[in-house]
Write a structure and sequence with these properties.
Helix content: 25-40%
CATH architecture: 3-Layer(aba) Sandwich
Strand content: 15-25%
Structural class: alpha/beta
Length: 191
């Protein structure tokens, strides 16, 4: 029986969510897998909520993932992970950055962003959870712009993704400027 994978990527505009989804799709197609994707590119400007549905496998006929059917959520921001948690199937995996991106309303004092409560909620409701310290990754790698690839590497190591490092590296080499290859290779292997 063919294995299908339902993956949701979610984050904030400007974090590289769309590029990460394109890398996953390209890597899967190179391996001969059927791929269906859907993205919210209209909100992709910096600061807006962005998410992509990616369905991989032989028995995939539509791009949208039904609630409770995602095998994997890759979240670039913890509140976005919680916002999409209803999409995760029982026993599914969440890989998320532990560093929040504060909305403008929080920055100007009109709302709160309870980071620790959000992280505790994820820890209490997701049995297969990987938290990635994206601030430390940015410091260690010298760039915050490769969080998307750091998270893809963490997803590979979580075991929830059938693609491997070589698959993603090949997609990176085809879709990312050569001067950024070494940085992205280090990012992929970071976690």
């Amino acid at each position: 029986m063919p294995r299908n994978e339902n993956i949701i990527l979610c984050g904030i505009g400007g974090q590289g969510t769309i590029l990460a989804s394109k890398l996953l799709a390209a890597a899967a197609m190179k391996r001969g897998m059927a791929v269906k994707t859907a993205e919210t590119i209209g909100m992709a400007q910096r600061g807006g909520s962005v998410f992509s549905h990616i369905r991989l496998g032989d028995d995939v006929h539509a791009p949208l993932i039904a609630p409770g059917q995602a095998d994997l959520i890759i979240a670039f921001e913890p509140a976005e992970a919680v916002r999409h948690l209803h999409m995760l199937k029982e026993g599914g995996c969440v890989v998320t950055s532990s560093h929040p991106i504060f909305p403008t309303s929080t920055l100007i004092g009109q709302s709160q962003y309870p980071v620790e409560e959000i992280l505790d909620y994820l820890k209490n409701h997701v049995s297969n959870l990987t938290l990635v310290d994206s601030e430390q990754a940015a410091k260690d790698l010298g760039s915050a712009r490769v969080l998307n690839v750091v998270l893809l590497g963490a997803a590979i190591r979580s075991g929830a993704l059938s693609l491997n490092e070589d698959d993603i590296l090949e997609a990176i080499h085809e879709r990312v400027a050569e001067r950024f290859h070494a940085l992205n290779e280090n990012a992929l292997r970071y976690v």
